[in-house]
Amino acid sequence: MQSTTEGQARSTNGPAQLPQTIDTADAMRNPGMELDMDWVLSARANRSAIERRAVTLPGRRSVKKEYQAAWLARAISCIDLTTLAGDDTEGRVRRLCAKARQPVRADLLEAIGLPGLTTGAVCVYHDMVATAHDALQGSGIPVAAVSTGFPAGLTPFPLRVAEIGESVKAGAEEIDIVITRRHVLQGNWQALYDEMKAFRAACGEAHVKAILATGELGTLQNVARASLVCMMAGADFIKTSTGKESVNATLPVSLVMIRAIRDYHQRTGIRVGYKPAGGISKAKDALVYLSLIKEELGDRWLRPDLFRFGASSLLGDIERQLEHHVTGAYSAAWRHAAS
Amino acid sequence: MSIKDIFETMDYGPAPEAAGDALAWIVDQGSRFGAFINGEFTTPGDTFETINPATGEVLAQVTQASPADVDAAVAAARKAQDGWERLGGKGRARHLYALARLVQKHARLFAVLESLDSGKPIREARDIDVPLVARHFYYHAGMAQLMEAELPGRAAMGVCGQVVPWNFPLLMLAWKIAPALAMGNTVVLKPAEWTSLTALLFADICRQAGLPKGVVNIVTGDGVVGAALVAHDGVDKVAFTGSTEVGRKIREATAGQGKGLTLELGGKSPFVVFEDADLDSAVEGLVDAIWFNGGQVCCAGSRLLVQEGVAERFHEKLKLRMQSLRVGNPLDKCIDVGAIVHPEQLARIKGLVAGSGGVVTQGTAPEGCYYPPTLIEGLEPADPLMQEEIFGPVLVSTTFRTPSEAVALANNTRYGLAASVWSENVNVALDVAPKLVAGVVWVNGTNMFDAAAGFGGVRESGFGREGGWEGLQAYTKPAAKRKALKVAAPVVGEPELPEGLDRTAKLYIGGKQARPDGGYVRHVFGKGGKALGQVGIANRKDLRNAVEAARGAAGWSGATAHNRAQVLYYIAENLEARAEEFAARIDAVTGKGGKAEVEAAVSRLFSYGAWADKFGGDLRQVPMRGMALAVREPVGVVGAFCPDEAPLLGLISVLAPAIAMGNRVVLVAGEAGPLTATDFYQVLDTSDVPGGVVNILTGSHAELAPTMAQHFDIDAVWSFSASDISAVIERESAASLKRTWVNNGLVTDWDTAEGRAFLEQATEVKTVWVPYGA
C-alpha cells in the first residue's frame, strides 16, 4: 500500500517512535516529523467542492431532543472560554473562571444528569494567566494563554519564544501561538516549520495550539499546506483564527484543516486536535461543527483533548437551549449567570 | 439512552420528518386515485397498490388507466391546446409562475410525499428535487414570457405524450411539463407506476392554480398505459425518460408517425480523478455521484477511473468515507441513502452484483428494501459490470495512466450521458472535458442541475436536451405549414451514349473516386428523356467504406472554425469558376433555372462559411460561482439523403452546415440529378477538403436507408428524399439510437432552407460545468 510505504519511509527519517497504528497512538502527543515538502506541496483544496460540502452538511445531519441536549453539553466541555480584550482585568477574568467551573445553572445540569460539567479551558492573554490559574485551582480546568505577539505575531522572534516560557511559568498548560502569516504567503514553508518547531520546544510540557489566522492566508490551499507544516513541526492542535481577523472560523476552512488532520493521522497514526475560533456564537452552529468533526474525523475527536471551540458568547446560547430542553419553554439570557 | 450516555457515545439519534400531513392528504383524496383528465379526477377504475418501499406499507390505490382513459386524456389535451397556445406566451407565463409559487408553498408536502412513495431521503427531496422543480417552472415562465420575441416563427408542437421514471418522479414531471406548457403545448403525462403520488398532487395543484382544463392531464398505470400514450394518433410529440430498452421500443413504435421525439435514457457515467485532484473533495463528489438517490440516477457517476499514482490512496479514502454513510429510514434527516424504490429493483441490483468478479467492499444497510453502498474494484473494461447500468448504489472502479487513456476508457461505453473530471490543473480539465462523449460534463463537481443548463445524452443515452434554450427545440416547430412532397415519376429515355468522350461517374469515398462495389450502373436521363450518362449504384459495402473514411477524418472536427470557413469559401470560389458547366447540367435535368441555382448554392456556401465561427455556444446563468458552458459540438458522422429536387442547391444545403460545424458526411445524392453530385467531386478535390470529410454515393435511397439507419458508427441520419424512407430510417435507428432528422414526406423550400435549423441539427449541445474558486 502506497500510504503505508510512505509512512514507513517517514518513520525512518523522523522520530523513531512514530507509531503506525491508531490504538497505540491514542494518548500520544504529536512528536512531529521532518518537513516533508512533497507531501506539503501535494496538498490540494478545491474551494468550490469544499464549499458545496460545507453548505450541504447542516442539512445532512440533525440532532434532536435528548441527543441535542447531550451534544450541547459535549460542546460546553470543549469550549475554551475566552476573553482577549484590552480592557481585561483580574475581576473580569475571575468572573470568567467562575463561569468555566459552573458553565450552566446547577439545577439544569442536575436535570440532564451531568453535574460537574465544566468548559474545556479558559483562554486569556499572558498578563491574566496567573489570575486565571489561581481562580481555577482544584477545578482541573487548564489555562490557555495566547502568545507569541498575539494577534499579529510580529514582535521580535526571541521575545515571542520568551513569551511562551513566561506563560508556562505563570501556570499556562496550553499555549495558543500565532504563526507568521508572511511565511505562508511567501511559500517559505521551511521558515514556518522552524518557527513552529521553536515554539513547540519552548512550550515544554504545555500543549501548543497553532493559530493559522486563516482569514489572512488568502487561499484554502495555503490553509491546507500551513496545517500540514504546523503538524509536522509538532503542533498539538491547529486552530483557525485569533478572533481578530475580519474572517474567522468558517466551515470550508474547518473542512480543509480537519482533512489535513485526517491525512496526518492516516499517514503517521498521530491525532492532532482542532480548534475553530471566532464567530461561533449559536448552539446550532456548535452542533454543525460537532457533526462535521464526527463525519470527517470520527468520534474519537469529539473530546476536549482533540477538539475545542474558541468562543466567548457561544455558551450563553447553549445555556438557553438547555433550559428549553429541560423546561419546554424558551429561555432568556437573564436567567443564566453572566461570565 | 440517557443524556449522560449520549454525552459519551455522541450518537445522532433519530431525527424523523413528520409524515402526518402527507398521509392526511392521501386520506383526504380517499386513498384511491383516478386519472386526472380535463381538470378533474376520474372515478378510480381498476387500481393497483402504491407502496412505501421503506416499510412495505400500502400508501394508496392508483388507477390503471384504460385505453378509454388515454383517449379521453389525449382528447382533452387536444381540445385545450388551441386556446392555450392562443393565450400567448405572456398569458402562459402567469400560469407557470403560479405553478412555481404553489410548488414552493407546498414544498414540504411534495417532499415528504416523494420520500414516502420513492424511498429517497427526505433531505434530497426537500433540498434538491423540490427546489429544482420550482426553479424549472420559474425559468420556463420566463421562456413563455419571451417566446414571441425570441422565438419568432416557432409554434407549439401540439399535444405532448410524456412518460417519466420513478427515480425523480416530480422533478422529471417538471422537466417535461414546464417547457411544454411554456411553448403552448398541452400534455398527457404518465408517471411511473411505482411513484404516481406526487404527479397526482401536482394535478391537484394545477386545479388550485386555475390552469385551464385539459392543459395538464395525468394518466397513471404501468408500461401498457405508457405504450398506448406514446403510440396514440392524437399525440404530436413524445418525451420519455427511462431505460434504454424502453426508449428503443418507443423509437420503433413512433417511427414514421411524424412525431417529435426526445429520449433521455440510461448511462454508465465516468468519474475521472487525476493525480492532481483534491482527493478528499473528489471522494465527497463520489458520494454525490453514486450514492445520491441510492445510485438510482441515470447520470450517476458509476464508473470510477483513477490515475494510477493516487489510486491506492484514493480508494483508502473512499472506503473510509463509505463507513460513515448512513443507510436507512428515508424520512430520517440524518440519512444519506434511503430505500431502494421497489423490491424488484433491489433484486435486480443484488443479481447484478452477485454475478460480478472483482473485489467487493460494502457499507452497511438495514434489513428490508435497502442496499449497502458498494464498491467493486479490480474490474477490467471487458467485465459486464463496467459496461452495464446497475441503477443502484454500486460503484465500479479501475485505473488509468495518462489523460488520453482516461479519455479512451471513459468513452469506452455504449452510453454518453454525463461525466465528471477532477483535476486542479485547468489545462488537464479543460482539455479532457470536451473529449468526453457525454451531454453533460462536470469539472470538479457532479450531479449539478439547473433549468438554464441543458441536460441530455448522446449515443444510447438518447437524444434531445431538457433545460435551456436548446430544450425548447423539442417543444416547438416551424410555424409555417409544409406541403406534401410530390414524387416525380422517374424520367425514362433511350439508353444511348451521350455526345463526346465517355465519362465514368464513380462514387466519392475518402477523397478519391471509387468504383461501386457491386459493379452496376444505371442510366440517367434528363428532361425529355435525353440520356445524360450513367452513375454507379452504391450498395451497403460502399456505404460501409464511406463511413470508415468519414470516421477516419476525425481531424476535421478538431480543425479551427476559421479553417473550416476557409474551406467552405474555397469550395464556393471553385464552384463559381465552373458556374456555367453546373448551370448547364442542372438545366439538362430540370429544364431551367440552372444559373440561379448555382448562384444560390455559392451564396449558401458563403452563409455557412460565415456561420462556421459564429455558432459555438454560450454561457448559462446558473446559480453557482463558475461557468456553465453550452458548447456546440459536431454530431460526428452524419449520413444524409439529399433532395431529389434542386440537385445542386439541395446537396450544398445539406453538406455545408454539416461540415461547417465540424461533422464528416456521407451523402447520398438525389436520385433525379446525381450527375451534378458526381461533377461536384472535382470541386471538392480542388478546394482543400480533406479526404473523408465529404463522401458522396449515388444509388437508391430506399435501398440504402435501412443500412444507413442501422450503421452503429453513424451518429445522425438526415433525409430530404422524395422516396418514402422517413419511417424506415426512424425505425431502423432504434438499435443505435442515433439522431434522425427526416422530412416525413413534406416539402422543403430550398431557396430559404438555411441557418439555425440546420446548424442545430448539425451540433449537439454539451453542457460543461466549471465551478471555480481560488
Provide a descriptive summary of the structure in words.
- The complex is a heterodimer of chains A (339) and B (774).
- Chain A is built from 14 helices and 8 strands.
- Chain A is of the alpha/beta class.
- Chain A has an 8-stranded parallel sheet with strand order 7-6-5-4-3-2-1-8.
- Mean pLDDT of chain A is 93; it is low at 1-24.
- Chain B is α/β, with parallel strands linked by helices.
- In chain B, helix 4 runs antiparallel to helix 6 (122-150) and helix 22 runs parallel beside helix 23 (647-660).
- Chain B folds into 3 domains: 65-265 and 471-478, Aldehyde Dehydrogenase, Chain A, domain 1; 269-455, Aldehyde Dehydrogenase, Chain A, domain 2, CATH 3.40.309.10; 507-626 and 634-758, Aldehyde Dehydrogenase, Chain A, domain 1 (3-Layer(aba) Sandwich).
- Chain A binds chain B through residues 1-3, 44-53, 56, 59-67, 69-71, 73-74, 112-114, 219, 259, 262-263, 266, 290-291, 294-295, 298-299, 302, and chain B through 1-7, 9-15, 123, 126-127, 276-282, 284-285, 312-313, 316, 324, 333-334, 336, 424, 444-445, 624-626, 771-774.
